Amino acid sequence: MAEDMTRQQLDQLAKEFRYILTDQICHMGWGHLGGTFSLVEIVITLYWRIMRIDPKNPKWEDRDRLVLSKGHAGPVVYAALAYKGFFPIRELATLNLEGSRLPSHANALLTPGVDMTTGSMGQGLSCACGMALSARMDSKKHTVFCIIGDGESDEGQIWEAAMLAGHQRLENLVAICDYNHLQIDGRTDDICTLDPLAEKWRAFNWEVLEMNGHDWDEVHSTIAKAQHVQGKPTMIIAHTVKGKGHRRYENLVSSHCLRLADDTAKKELLAGIEGLDFDWTNQ
User: Fold this and answer.
1) Strands 186-187, 144-149: pairing kind
2) Element housing 209 (H / E)
3) Residue 14 region by backbone torsions, left for phi larger than 0, else alpha for psi between -120 and 50, else beta
């Protein structure tokens, strides 16, 4: 349920998330830092200020759903779920280890609180459409949120789902595009430009909103507004920075998936998170 949090509390939580995520990558020797960091403020806002959830009952029928279509950003959702009490925070240290409930990509069969297994690019929005349509058929009032990537938006299935959602007028569906302008192979504008992105979604009969994906007030007010749109689904274009919050990897293609060769690289990576150093593995 929504919580009242000060800007200072939100900033502290985001800093802790980024520190833990960086520490996990250092421990593993590799990880998807860039597109995970770009979602920190959005994911925290969803789980702390917007979504109706119950950690004691992860399958609560009336909960809001989140489909993380860009499933490689799963670690930031795991951090949110752990902090909300779906499982112990110390379990985050098992990310992608053998026998872990926390694989590198989101898996609903393993992780309490994950609503949809994702990772195959382009498929999440179709699943979210099915969830939203099912909810409407059952007269349920929950919202289905879906986070997609801008690189992922090169997939044709994204636009098939967009066409279906617009035709079905799925007003209980809110999609968020993490528009950081970078993907695994380079800049989105160089590989397959999405512009004019807003006009594309409007052409599929979606309400389109835009926001700074790192501004707490703007993220909250935009998502809250999207939940009140009637007669059509909503796409929120979130203008973000890949690697946001890490001084060494902001806005770099190389931050998509980092591979650390030695301990020096790990120390440099962890040092890039300023102002925080704490042992979270005992919590």
Assistant:
1) unpaired
2) strand 207-212
3) alpha
Site of tokens 């890039």? 272
219 within 8 A of 10, measured Cβ to Cβ: no
Beta carbons of 213 and 178 less than 8 angstroms apart: yes
CATH of the domain at 203: 3.40.50.970
Rg (alpha carbons) of the chain, rounded to whole number: 18
For the stretch 140-144, contacts whose Cβ atoms lie closer than 8 Å and that sit 24 or more positions apart, written own/partner, are 140/61, 140/62, 141/62, 141/172, 142/52, 142/62, 142/63, 142/64, 142/65, 142/172, 143/51, 143/64, 143/65, 143/172, 143/173, 143/174, 143/227, 144/64, 144/65, 144/67, 144/172, 144/173, 144/174
Q: What is the mean pLDDT of each run of 10 residues along the chain (283 residues)?
A: 83 91 84 92 98 96 97 94 95 90 91 94 96 97 97 96 98 98 92 96 98 98 98 98 89 86 73 70 67
For residue 96 the two structure tokens come to 């992608």
Domain total of the chain? 1
Q: Measuring CA to CA, which residue among 64, 68, 61 is closest to residue 51?
A: 64
The number of angstroms, rounded, from the C-alpha of 265 to the middle of its chain's C-alpha atoms is 26
Residue 133 counted as domain residue: yes
Range of the domain at 212: 8-271
Please tell me the number of Cα atoms within 13 Å of 65 on its side-chain side: 28
pLDDT, residue 101, reads 94
Q: Is the distance from CB of 269 to CB of 263 less than 8 angstroms?
A: no
The conformation of residue 89, written as its DSSP 8-state character, comes to G
Nearest 5°: CA angle at 159, between 155 and 160? 105
